[in-house]
Structure formats: C-alpha cells, structure tokens
Amino acid sequence: MAGAEIDRLMQIFARLPGLGPRSARRAVLHLLKRRETALDPFLSALTDVRDRVRSCSVCGNLDTCDPCAVCADPRRDPGLLCVVADVDDLWALERTRAFPGRYHVLGGVLSALDGIGPEDLSVAALVKRAAAQEVAEVILALSATVDGQTTAHYVADRLRDCSVRISGLAHGVPIGGELDYLDDGTLSQALRARRPV
Amino acid sequence: MAGAEIDRLMQIFARLPGLGPRSARRAVLHLLKRRETALDPFLSALTDVRDRVRSCSVCGNLDTCDPCAVCADPRRDPGLLCVVADVDDLWALERTRAFPGRYHVLGGVLSALDGIGPEDLSVAALVKRAAAQEVAEVILALSATVDGQTTAHYVADRLRDCSVRISGLAHGVPIGGELDYLDDGTLSQALRARRPV
C-alpha cells in the first residue's frame, strides 16, 4: 500500500511502548501531513537527543551534561541518596519536587525470570557512593512488587557495612484512593502504620 | 528534571495522536535506553520518510514515487475510481486487498465547523479525472457521518456532467458485530437492504 519506507517507520513506531499498529499509523500519517510543523521539529528534537543526551557517570540519570543537572546542583543535600530502579522512577520523584537529595539509578531490579542478577545492577557503585562520609541516609525507592522488594533487601544487605541510615518509602492509602477499591495488603499496611491526626 | 532536549522531545511525542504525556515519557525513555537498537533505526526511518515520501500528483496518496505505486500499477482497473477523504482511508481499503481500481484522495471532508469548504478539497482534479473516457464508475468511500455524507452529495453533484456511474459503500451489520450493540440507524438500514441468502 504505502511505500516500504512508510511501512518501516510504522513498524518502528508500533514497537514503542504504549503504541500499537493503529496508533503507529495515525502518528506516521500525522507527521507526514505536517512536514514543516510536525515532522521537521520531531526529527530535529530526536537528533538533538541522540547526539547530546548521555548517562550521568555518577548517578545513571539521562542528561545532556555529565554529571547530570541533579548531581551538579550545589543546592542538593549531599547527605541524602535515593536509590531508584530506573530513570523513569527518578523523573517521577523529580516531578513531585519533594526530594532535596541526589539519586542513584540501579538500572533495573533483580529478577530470576528475566535473568537479571546483582552484577547487572550498579550496586557496587552505590556502595562506593554510600561509603562517602557525607552520605547520611539511603532511601530505597523501589517498587512494592516482589522483585522490587527483593532488590531492596539485597541492596540494604550490601549497604550494611556503610554507616548510613537505610529507609524505604511509606506504604498506605494513595491520595485520592477510595478504601473500597484498595487491596487488602495496602489497607492492612495503612492500618498498622496509622498516625495521630 | 531531565535536560531541556529530552523535555522538548517528550512534548513533541505527546502531541502525536493517541499519545499523552505518560506514553510520550515511556516512548522517549525506551528510545534513550536502546540507542543502537531503537533510537538509531527510528531516526533513520524518520529521515528516509522525510526525504523520500511525497504526495502523488495524480491521486494524493503518499509514496516515494510519483505517480504512486497504486497509480503506476498497470494491473489496476482504470475504469474504477474510489474517492476517499484521506490517505488513511486509502490505506485501510488497500489493506482489504478487495479493491482492484485506483483512488482519489479529497484531502478531507466539507465541514462548516472546521471551515473546510469545497475549494479546500481536490474536487476539481477529481472531476477532471472522472471526465476521462476510461473511467466508468466512481465509488464514494466516505465516512457515514454528517460531514462525510454532505461531502458525498456535493461530490456526486459535481460529477453529474461526467458520464460515470456513481456508487457508495454499503451500510449494514459489521462482520463480527452483535445486533444487540448496533445502533438503530445501522440496524434499520441493514433490514431495508436485506439480501436473499
């Protein structure tokens, strides 16, 4: 139907997370119909990112400078280190504007199923950073899944010899969440960890 | 949080049809984490399409050659001309492999709301093509919406002086469709147009 080039682009689009064949087709057509206003800016933004974005050699964040903007920010508390599985978790935490410290991206979580072992995660680099005198607390901001919590336990174990406080995110009722729809585990956790009002 | 380049790319991604801020973030991160296997092929496919895909000067299809592969195919019936609103409709019809003729892309449908009038559509070019001796039938494959049917009536009117048969797509129960869930209009149409089994 359309040329091989268009087909190839649609297939590549369809492999992106969250897109399927139908939305890929719509996206490609949207770009093709708006060359100057959509396709060209898209292409230049993509090229920019390809050429300029690198992994931060300190924390593993993605940025155009190395160390990244978070690591290089002198207003950040050097005593607080937040461990996340992936860059998207780092971005999610940054969007809250609630964390004044720095990050460490593990690059995934331990997973027997996916064959991800300790040597695939940047744990050694974390231990090295946590051993620095200025680090007082390491926050394990890992998902409340089996793999996430296994990883948290493993990382906590590896940090045992560093003289840092180790903490995890609080569990409980999500803001805006209805009790009715909450799973039993979360609800009982929220009950146990109840706080004076 | 991330660099300005990444933010810009995410915003551009989020403007594509079918994507939002969240899926844009996931797509960008997916590409950034897989430079060689995802970002580079994406970029080269996009550049190829930008540089090589043009509108067909005959029918309005998008392809790397002009006339497009459909117009240039000598096995296509020159007597059948299928009028579609947009390139995605042409692609949808081509995927069925059920149409042996050629196409004409109007470039939209008449719409008072969107300010799209007859002069915005390639109707004059269609009339010129339909006036050619070899064209025997023009099929109006336009959406069964108010705007689509208004456009079909307008196009049929403009084709009055050409000696061509004018037809439209059949209405009825979609294949796999349950009668229960069908709207009254479609159902009564399907009843009126009933066929001997």
TrEMBL record, chains A, B:
Where would I find the Toprim domain in this sequence?
A: 79-174
Q: What are the start-end ranges of the zinc fingers (C4-type)?
A: 56-71
* Position of the signal peptide: none
Q: What GO biological process, any one, is recorded here?
A: DNA repair
Please give one Gene Ontology molecular function term for this protein.
DNA binding
Report the sequence similarity comment from the record.
Answer: Belongs to the RecR family.
Q: What does this protein do?
A: May play a role in DNA repair. It seems to be involved in an RecBC-independent recombinational process of DNA repair. It may act with RecF and RecO.
Q: What is this protein called?
A: Recombination protein RecR
Q: Which organism is it from?
A: Novispirillum itersonii
* Gene, per the UniProt record: recR
